[in-house]
Write a structure and sequence with these properties.
Blueprint lengths: L1 H10 L4 H10 L13 H6 L5 H26 L1 H27 L7 H24 L1 H6 L1 H8 L1 H18 L6 H30 L2 H25 L3 E3 L2 E5 H22 L3 H4 L3 E3 L4 E3 L11 E4 L2 H7 L3 E4 L1 H15 L2 H13 L15 H23 L4 H9 L3 H18 L1 H7 L1
Antiparallel strand pairs: 1-2, 3-4, 5-6
Helix pairs in contact: 5-6, 5-10, 6-9, 6-10, 10-11, 10-17, 11-12, 11-15, 11-17, 12-15, 16-17
Length: about 425
């Protein structure tokens, strides 16, 4: 029996040092085991087995979440950014609460207060950078905003430094290690949640298609992997998630690549999805109207000779973005799930089933967004590496804020450069 219990501990990833540390960290946090399924669903599905009941509950709630997703897309960029902020706060709350269940046993001061204070500081820094970057003209037009923008990083550092000093003053004798442990807990949570939610908003400003397609691919992969695993799953995939199977993983991959390719084709034809989200200073509102870039213009591609005999075509017309969507959906299918595995390992380490019970059958908000944050980082890196170029409108906005002598100096430098390239003469002739 002793050997069996030791082997079970090893499967859970628990070592002797983990067991010894339980006394210091106050034991494992409580496991949320209550049935959070709405009573109306419990009555309607009472005759089904637990397996099929869970299937229907997850399916109904998934359709509800997808409907909500379509609604917030329809409401526009401002609502989307607000929802991202709300999701970020909820995810932060769920992770910090797990830490607090351990930390609170010593009744040490200021942990939750400092955690939310650091969240405020980090959001002030990131969103201040975003406002300065994307609302530059508005910031320069308003005196208070211009002052805040000029000293933004200094103010951000001062705010953080205040929290740092508060943490040092809160240290309690005999519990230093635990307090530093929770200090690190807070900062890792900020790195995972706040930083990556900020990248989601940056992706949104590149065009709503860069926001919708990656998120939809992760959702599709999650659904299709579950469906393939539910009906065909036989081979376990990874010990961290015993219910994950190779059949679900592979089936989800092919379904997600096809879904991403088709969704990209549909969305690439609409300017409201493909144009960058910009702030109109005249109307003080967001606009998504532009001339579509080459990424979103139909082009003709030659089909490889090997496939020509199979499909019967020599060429195919498609949007270049569809090729990029294959990279996005492949990442969502092959690498994205590791965000879920990471979250599973985290939950097993603290012996909890879900981060919270916010969504019946699904767990907490963090349980639904564990893969989304990893995907957001990839999309941001992908855009910076392969898509984004210099933005002329932003350069002009910054140029107009310079002093007249600085503008004249840049003008003369640009004129000399164009003359050397032989472009200025041709422009004058035209």
């Amino acid at each position: 029996n002793l050997q069996e219990s030791e082997s079970e501990n090893k499967l859970d990833g628990e070592t002797a040092s983990d067991s010894e540390s339980k006394s210091e960290f106050g034991g494992s946090p409580p496991v949320p085991t209550s049935d959070d399924t709405p009573e109306v669903l419990n009555r309607a599905l009472s005759n089904l087995s637990s397996r099929w009941k869970n299937w229907w509950v997850r399916g109904i709630l998934t359709l509800a979440m997808i409907t909500f997703f379509f609604i917030i897309i329809y409401l526009g960029p401002m609502v989307l950014m607000t929802i991202v902020m709300c999701v970020q706060i909820k995810c932060f709350h769920e992770i910090i609460t797990i830490g607090y269940n351990v930390y609170h046993s010593y009744d040490l001061p200021w942990f939750r207060t400092l955690s939310w204070y650091f969240l405020l500081c980090v959001n002030y820094f990131f969103y201040g950078e975003t406002v300065t970057d994307y609302f530059f003209t508005l910031v320069q037009r308003e005196e208070p905003l211009r002052i805040l923008s000029k000293y933004h990083r200094f103010i951000s550092f001062a705010l953080y430094l205040t929290g740092f000093c508060m943490f040092v003053l809160s240290l309690v004798k005999k519990h230093y290690r635990l307090q530093f442990y929770m200090f690190g807990w807070t900062h890792v949570t900020l790195l995972i949640v706040v930083t990556q939610s900020h990248l989601i908003i940056h992706n949104l400003f590149e065009g709503m298609i860069w926001f919708i397609v990656p998120i939809s691919c992760v959702i599709c992969n999650d659904i299709m992997a579950y469906m393939f695993g539910f009906f065909f799953g036989r081979t376990p995939l990874i010990k961290l998630s015993p219910k994950k199977t190779w059949e679900g993983f592979i089936g989800g991959f092919f379904a997600t690549v096809l879904f991403g390719w088709l969704l990209s084709y549909v969305m690439s034809g609409y300017r409201c999805f493909t144009c960058p989200v910009e702030f109109n200073n005249d109307t003080n509102s967001f606009t998504v109207d532009c001339e579509p870039s080459e990424l979103f213009q139909l082009q003709e591609y030659n089909i490889p000779l090997v496939l020509q005999s199979v499909v019967g075509w020599k060429t195919v017309r498609m949007y270049p973005f569809q090729i990029h969507s294959i990279a996005l959906s492949t990442f969502a299918s092959l690498i994205g799930p590791f965000g879920g595995f990471f979250a599973s390992g985290f939950k097993r380490a603290f012996k909890i089933k879900d981060f919270a019970n916010t969504i019946p059958g699904h767990g907490g908000i963090m349980d639904r967004f564990d893969c989304q944050y990893l995907m957001a980082t990839f999309v941001n890196v992908y855009i910076a590496s392969f898509i984004r170029g210099p933005n002329p409108s932003k350069l002009i906005q910054q140029f107009l804020t310079l002093r007249p002598d600085q503008q004249l100096h840049i003008f003369n430098m640009l004129k000399a450069h164009l003359v050397d390239k032989g472009m200025l003469g041709s422009l004058e002739d035209a």
